[in-house]
Amino acid sequence: MLEDMFLEENSEFVRKVFLESRSLVEALILLKVWARQRRTVYTHDCINGYLLSVLVACLTAQSAGNIVSKSMTARQIFRVIIKYIGTSNAWEKGLFLHPPRQYNISKEDVNQQKKFPILLFDVSGHLNLMFRMTRAAFLELKDEAVSTLNCLEKHKDDGFEEIFMTKVDFASKFDSCLRINMKENSRVLGLGFCMDEERWRVCERDIHLLLSQGLTDRSKLVRVVWRNSPSNWNIHDGFMKFGEEPVLVGVLLSSQEKSFRIVDIGPSAENKDEVIKFRKFWGEKAELRRFKDGNIAESTVWECDPWERHAIIKRIVEYVLHRHFKLASQDLFHSVDQLDFCLHLNGKDPVSHSGKLMEAFETLSKRLRLLDDIPLKVSTVQPLDPAFRHASVFPPLPHPLVHEKLSIKSTESIALTCIPSMDVLIQLEGSGNWPLDPVAIERTKSAFLLRIGKSLEERWGMICTASEEEVNVHTSGFSFSLKILHERALSTLTSLAMSGKGKSIHPSIDKELFMKSQHSSMINGLHGRFPMYGSVVRLAKRWVSAHLFSSYFAEEVIELVVAHLFLRHFPFHAPCSRITGFLRFLRLLANFDWAYSPLVVDINNDLTSEDEKDIYENFLSCRKMEEKNEGEMDVAMYIATSYDKQSQAWTKFSPSKLVLKRIASYARSSADLLTGIITDGAPNEYTWECVFRTPLTNYDAVILLHPNKLPQPQHLLFPSQQPKGKLVTWGKPSKDFNCYLPLKGGTKSLMEARDKILVNFDPTRYFLRDLQSEFHDTFKLWYDKIGGDAIGITWEKNNSKKRRRDEEEEIKMDPLGILEEVGQIGKGFVKSVHLLKAPKLGQNGRFPK
């Protein structure tokens, strides 16, 4: 009633203030845009445009000390208001539109208002305009303001995108999102309707208090929002549908170490009153324990495997709500681990074997350094494979046939025929005797590697295999591929990279090894700072491959894009959950302005302001070259790092502009789907899976492969269904290759089985190589290198630059004949080939060449 009584007077006061200054109006617009982008604070219990107007007017008035000066620019006013929201305690004591003495308000009247978290009195002096704001909402508002201040200080004038253009919603902001159905809850129904506080608000407060108490310091912020009226509500429908919307709960985690710990320590056994409270809250989960320091205290224990710890928050929240709100399991939906299925093998995450992998590498590294019968001693051993930096979707598992001593467990009856070999970089002692000719250098390296392999076999019994391309060492169930970067190339590469002239490095093999070495070192340091990084990268890589983009995106590109999310995370906090990080990855791919902005990834703060200036100049130069080349981009995806300022390492040739546009479209669709599932629920039980399902109808033709001929058939996520289209050809599986080897026991049979192992053999990759060699101008190939059984084909379109003006460029083409030949090239490996769309005809009625 008071709000309605003084509505006109309050509006008139605000109007007069803003009439006096144009900069105030512009600053208010900035504030409203800032608040609207943060949908979790622009709500019924927090802030809105009107309250922001009142706040700016109040801080401009003399009663608040003229904090805002009318001579300030709009950006200065915005900064002052944001700083005031984030750091000032004055409005918790009380703000007045007019000096308090004009109201004749007693201290007792003011103290009665202290039940509200903040006080902003209107022109009458009797109404607190912020009476709807809750304590939880106020804390979130302050957190957002502090985060914005940090962004302004860190990025100077370059934080516009993060502050005003990035959407901050429940799904992308909070590490853990929970949806609760309260429609038939007895505790809520018992509150009734006729109360000073609506029952929805009481329920919000109770859930917030319970979860804050249950999570303790595991969370930085708990936010509970219940929209009491349906989003499509019509006043003629009455109030019968009120309360049908779910309660949304967002949890912002404090840190990996705190949030995912197994044990919570409660009060000491001697503190009887606190023990009673603790046991009343936790019930049967409370137990008395003696700890290592001798302390005896109450505790709760959430035992789980290390790779399941990210779900501990889910277990705690669900237990607390089951116990205190009597909620059934079907009334709770917590988005935490629903995407784990695409990273698991037989229901378990293979990262659980990472310890064995690191032990095997340490053993190999130690033995390489101890070798003393080679001309130059090994000085440095560096792992290059993504598995060593926790960035491999499926890190290799120990293989039973690549141990020094063969012994097969009785439970193992088969083993994989193909095993991956992980790259390991070796640097030798300095020497001036290296040849200068590039071919001679590579042959010298091969000779060194063969000698090293022979020494490892003779001295420690390791298994070594050699080919023209690589030398592999098998030990402790794993295979390692040895590479050498000699010291002369290393010094040349380092100086060229530091000077920004890395594109002229020769030979290319050394350049690639050097770039991989630099990248691996950089990412390894990142994982130590952000332990959740590895899980998000794995999900991102799985998604890119599942949608058949493996041909166009190097793994290092995905790792750098995800790294950017953690390093430059504004307006968010760095993600502490894999689903939230993955959603931000999708949105970054979809929304980043790749055509007009470089993605600068500075992991160790190595880039100076001069370096960043050079990066932007190089980027602009690259785009100017594109204009001269009639729209053909030299580097469509420009990613700059301290070791690669000109984006030459991973994106120089791929992806193209069209491929980048395609993946951005896929990312936008997946992000929208994922957001809807988190906040609104899944329309059916397969919706989470749809994030990783790619529609085969988006291709002109599809090749299906025999699943039992894939090198890693256990990685297949979803067996592909036969697409709707014309079946061109089909074939039976070959008997020459089987993805599994039978293990019957006995040393002789095991040795025979080991001789049949294929290292780094991938029939899909060789099949694609043959197709690209034969049809490089005819179509593009799309595939999943992690574990797909389908290959997409899109007919190649000639670029205007490459197209001749002569009509001889257009020739007759038989798409069915081409696809039949594709099936013949992959005979024994290809299951079927399907034509979905024929190529478009040219101007003369013929198919483009």
Give the structure's gist in a few sentences.
With 849 residues, the chain is of the alpha+beta class.
Task: Explain this structure.
By secondary structure, this protein is α+β, with helices and mostly antiparallel strands. It has four domains: 2-166, Poly(a)-polymerase, middle domain; 171-262 and 302-337, Alpha-Beta Plaits, CATH 3.30.70.3020; 351-391 and 404-680, no CATH class; 695-745 and 755-835, Alpha-Beta Plaits (2-Layer Sandwich), CATH 3.30.70. It has 28 helices and 25 strands. Helix 7 links the parallel strand 1 (95-96) and strand 2. The radius of gyration is 32 Å and the shape is globular. The termini are far apart. 36% of the residues are buried.
Keywords:
disordered C terminus; Alpha-Beta Plaits; Poly(a)-polymerase, middle domain; alpha+beta; five-stranded mixed β-sheet; 4 domains; 849 residues
Helix-strand category: alpha+beta
The helical percent reads 40-55%
Report the β-strand fraction as a percent range: 5-15%
What count of domains describes the coordinates? 4
Average pLDDT works out at 87
> The biggest beta sheet, please?
5 strands, mixed
What is the number of helical segments per DSSP (H or I, 4+ residues)? 28
